Amino acid sequence: MIRPPLPPHANPDAALLTCCEEAEERVLELTERLVNMDSGTDDLPGLERKAHVLADIFRSLGANSVELREAPEPRRGTYNVVAVFKGTGRARVLMLTHYDTVFPAGEAARRPFRREGDMAYGPGVADMQSSIALLIAAVEILHNKLGQRNYDTLTIHCNADEETGSYGSRALIRELGRSHHVSYNMEQSGREGELITISGRGIAKGTLAVTGIASHAGGGPEKGRNAGYELAHQLLQLRDLSRPEIRTGVHWTMGSFGHKLNVIPDHAEAFADIRVTRVDEFDRIRATIEERIKNRLIPDCRVKFDMDISVLPFQNDPVTLSLAEKVVAFTERELGRRLGFRHANGGNDTSHCAQVCPSLDGFGLGCLDNHSPNEALPLATIVPRLYILLRTWQETFAGRMLNLGEQDSPR
Questions:
Q1: CB count, 10 Å around CB of 109?
Q2: Rg (CA), the chain
Q3: Distances (CA, A) of 108 to 38, 77, 101
Q4: Is the model's pLDDT at 407 over the cut of 50?
Q5: Bigger pLDDT: 409 or 185?
Q6: How far apart are CA 387 and CA 20, in angstroms?
Q7: Percentage of the residues of the chain whose pLDDT score is greater than 90
Q8: What CA–CA distance (Å, rounded) separates 192 from 190?
């Protein structure tokens, strides 16, 4: 594989770098295998097939235990794969991945894995089949090439429904997080693999419901109370809730009223996409909306607002920043590359785990055009990102990422 040479000031662990270079084809071989298996979030047979394949791979790597944990409702019939490796050290490290994609059954056959120049393509190739492949290769290097097991526990969690909010896995993620010192997520690392993710926004759905009075639009419109008019009034006075300076976004994205042409509508509703970087912003938004909707255009209409918080924000708190800065420091020192900090627009499994466990995101490979037919993996990111993951493990196992004395009893 053609890769840019390391700059003159780089000072890598030469033996480790060689292991990573030798594992490049292994990563691509595993990626091809995973990409060519459908595992769309709603494709239960495909998900189950891939879950068993992943479980078999982890067993072949010598995992002390491998479980397929069935998800609760509303995701019953899907399975979280949990592989646990036991070692001789103190650190307890949780690795987060997801094996579901956004693509329907049959997409892998229509667009199988392929390489073109310095890119690889296929459904889910970057998000995140290649990152799972990278993680598997890292375990093989750690155990078989380096002979290192100086951790207490290395747990790998593979989620079957991250793409739809992790409703079938979030409780398990928190459960696992509480028994580990730190979690690292294998989500992507930017176009050139140049980022580490230190925050992600929390996500909620806002529902604005208006109840009016129905009447015949031709024979007695004055007897009705038009819920559509009231909804329009409410949306206009709720259009300025975003706060870009702190990355709060409140956007009314869907709405409807009426069901028959000749009936004054008695019901209308609209939905808002709400994203915040601070938990207290959810409270501000709710309170502001509830106060403003008291002002009605049509007094006889009733207006109600509900908020469903699906993901809490993953905040760049001091522990997260400390972890990220250490990764940035050894990457610059050893590979001559300066990683930037990424603030994700959405949330993922790190958002769930970070509530109970120090967490850092963005340990996967580079990515372009995720969730599209053009989704691509930049091949040049494989070796450096594999090196960064392994060095992060080594630093963590040695107690240089977190003070394991202070963290000896995970939350």
A1: 10
A2: 24
A3: 6, 22, 11
A4: no
A5: 185
A6: 6
A7: 90
A8: 6
What CATH architecture is 202-311? Answer: 2-Layer Sandwich (3.30)
Q: Once rounded to an integer, what is the mean pLDDT over residues 85-113?
A: 97
Is 271:207 a contact under the CB 8 Å cutoff? yes
Looking at the structure, give the CATH architecture of the domain made up of residues 14-201+313-397: 3-Layer(aba) Sandwich (3.40)
For residue 39, what are its two tokens?
A: 């595992």
Report angle CA 149, 381, 334 to the nearest 5 degrees.
Answer: 60
In sequence order, which residues have a C-beta less than 8 Å from that of residue 212 and are 6 or more positions away?
224, 225, 226, 227, 228, 230, 264, 265, 266, 267, 268, 298, 300, 301
Contacts (Cβ under 8 Å, ≥6 apart) of 261: 217
Residue listed under structure tokens 């879950």? 51
Q: Model confidence over 383-392: pLDDT tens digits?
A: 999 999 999 9
Q: With residue 196 as reference, give the H or E element that holds it.
A: strand 195-200
Instruction: Report the C-alpha gap between 282 and 142 in whole angstroms.
Output: 43
CA gap 12, 10 in Å, rounded:
6
Which residues are bridge partners to 257 per DSSP?
Answer: 268
Mean pLDDT of the 78-98 span: 98
- Provide the residue ranges of all domains of the chain, joining segments of one domain with +: 14-201+313-397, 202-311
At 311-341, the pLDDT tens digits run 889 887 789 999 999 999 999 999 999 999 9
Crossing angle (nearest 10°) for helices 130-140 and 382-397: 50
